[in-house]
């Protein structure tokens, strides 16, 4: 699934350093604004200990993890909605991603310049959020004008769309983002079709110094308080620590480094897993001697559509799905033991695949 999370933030907050730690695709990193001009795209492996356990039990010829794409987007400045800096390009790039990772700087370092002169993550977030809101307002005003001309036809759908757009515009004009706008489930397709920048799900990352990566600091406390009503996750990550971990050669060296820092796992692991969740993605597995593989699907996907991720022919010829729960597989140790224990489920077209299901699809070839 070609779903993308876009890393955004003001210039010099650590976006590219974080991206480099996340991805084998190396973005340029330097101490001046607009270092990143073209968006860098990296394919990121999603860490999943369940895949490791299945590999240990099955001993396949190969193991294939699931992935998501991370996009490092150019730094934004105040006035971007009017074309300042690289504003137009930035906004066009962010429109193409499915979710936003908003990085704010929450550390002091006199050697790294701040585009606004001092460190203030609350203000920095507001700068970007305001620019996105202004762009959305501009788009909604144009849509209101268009619908106003069409409303004379008394088409019920047009009338309803006109009301939704007007209410959305008012909501954003009051300083809110579209993601906090309340609407009926039946209106979701229309809301999504507007492609509003502030409607995209968001994850906040506070880039902190080494001393603050566990418990945070005054900057992170103020930031968390400022977004408390958004129902958005806030992660504390030190981009510099992640960069240092990324250059270590062995797993043992990385774990020793993390232990010295008082950490149990790299921050990028938590970030990747949070991105996966932010996109409403889950994983199911296929497990055989040739390969153990993780597959990405949207939460709520039914069995035939999940099969279609492997190949469209399997979806078209779908007969049934044989399903093993991950915990049953691990507890009993093998597919044959699961069958003997009567724990293998046989499901039809309406079965909604659960995170961690181990699937085998029967189909007409």
Attribute tags:
19% strand, alpha/beta, 365 residues, six-stranded mixed β-sheet, three-stranded mixed β-sheet
In short:
This protein has 14 helices and 12 strands. The protein is an alpha/beta fold and 365 residues long.
Structural write-up:
- The structure is a single chain.
- With 365 residues, the protein is of the alpha/beta class.
- The chain is built from 14 helices and twelve strands.
- The protein has helices at 15-22, 49-58, 87-95, 121-150, 156-173, 188-193, 218-226, 239-246, 251-261, 267-278, 303-310, 312-316, 326-332, 335-340; strands at 4-8, 40-45, 62-64, 67-72, 99-105, 202-207, 234-237, 281-287, 291-298, 318-324, 345-347, 358-363.
- A six-stranded mixed beta sheet has the order 2-4-1-5-6-7, with helices on both faces. The protein has a three-stranded mixed beta sheet with strand order 3-9-8, with helices on both faces. The chain has a three-stranded antiparallel beta sheet with strand order 11-10-12.
- Helix 4 runs antiparallel to helix 5.
- The protein is flat.
- The two termini are 23 Å apart.
- Residues 24-37 have low confidence and may be disordered.
SSE blueprint:
Elements: E1 4-8, H1 15-22, E2 40-45, H2 49-58, E3 62-64, E4 67-72, H3 87-95, E5 99-105, H4 121-150, H5 156-173, H6 188-193, E6 202-207, H7 218-226, E7 234-237, H8 239-246, H9 251-261, H10 267-278, E8 281-287, E9 291-298, H11 303-310, H12 312-316, E10 318-324, H13 326-332, H14 335-340, E11 345-347, E12 358-363
Parallel strand pairs: 1-4, 1-5, 3-9, 5-6, 6-7
Antiparallel strand pairs: 2-4, 8-9, 10-11, 10-12
Helix pairs in contact: 1-8, 4-5
């Amino acid at each position: 699934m070609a779903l993308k999370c876009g890393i955004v933030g003001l210039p010099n907050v650590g976006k590219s350093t974080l991206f480099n730690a996340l991805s084998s695709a190396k973005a340029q990193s330097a101490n001046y604004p607009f270092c990143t001009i073209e968006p860098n795209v990296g394919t990121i492996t999603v860490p999943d200990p369940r895949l490791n356990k299945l590999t240990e039990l099955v001993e396949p010829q190969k193991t294939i993890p699931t992935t998501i794409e991370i996009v490092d987007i150019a730094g934004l400045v105040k006035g971007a909605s009017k074309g300042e800096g690289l504003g137009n390009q930035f906004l066009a790039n962010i429109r193409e991603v499915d979710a936003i990772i908003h990085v704010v700087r929450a550390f002091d370092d006199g050697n790294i310049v701040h585009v606004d002169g001092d460190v203030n993550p609350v203000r920095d977030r507001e700068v970007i959020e305001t620019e996105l809101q202004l762009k959305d307002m501009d788009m909604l005003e144009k849509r209101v004008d268009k619908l106003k001309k069409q409303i004379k036809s008394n088409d019920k759908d047009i009338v309803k769309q006109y009301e939704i757009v007007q209410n959305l515009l008012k909501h954003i004009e009051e300083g809110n983002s579209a993601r906090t706008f309340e609407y009926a489930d039946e209106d979701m397709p229309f809301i999504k079709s507007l492609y509003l920048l502030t409607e995209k799900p968001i994850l906040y990352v506070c880039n902190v110094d080494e001393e603050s990566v566990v418990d945070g600091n005054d900057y992170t406390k103020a930031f968390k308080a400022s977004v408390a009503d958004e129902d958005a996750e806030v992660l504390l990550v030190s981009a510099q620590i992640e960069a240092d971990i990324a250059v270590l050669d062995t797993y043992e060296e990385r774990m020793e480094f993390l232990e010295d820092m008082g950490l149990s796992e790299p921050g990028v692991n938590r970030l990747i897993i949070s991105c996966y969740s932010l996109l409403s993605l889950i994983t199911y597995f296929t497990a055989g001697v040739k390969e153990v593989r993780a597959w990405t699907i949207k939460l709520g996907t039914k069995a035939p559509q999940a099969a279609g991720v492997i190949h469209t022919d399997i979806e078209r010829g779908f007969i049934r799905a044989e399903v093993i729960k991950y915990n049953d597989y691990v507890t009993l140790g093998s597919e044959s033991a699961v069958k003997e224990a009567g724990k293998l489920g046989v499901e039809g077209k309406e079965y909604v695949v659960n995170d961690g299901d181990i699937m085998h699809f029967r189909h007409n070839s």
